[in-house]
């Protein structure tokens, strides 16, 4: 299960609208790929379709799809958004990550 904070929900909804997506019917695709300073990095993009082997989660009125390979890495993650002068943008608070890099965009298990 992936959770979405209230701030992340607002930012996702705004960005989806700006890019021609509908936050009520389209998806946020979250995944993990090899790379980054700690070994694995997060992917976040919008998608209009769901593959047969994707897992679908919905939290805070945001539909999230995750490919089956990434589900184990992301279980229990909370997607947050930090704006402002010192804001980092989207932040993945992942309880499975044993080590993260300084920028918060990569992790290792």
UniProtKB/TrEMBL annotation:
GO terms for cellular component: cytoplasm
Boundaries of every Core domain copy: 2-105
GO MF annotation terms: 2 iron, 2 sulfur cluster binding
Pfam family name, one: Fe-S_biosyn
Coiled coil: none
Family: Belongs to the HesB/IscA family.
Protein name: Iron-sulfur cluster assembly protein
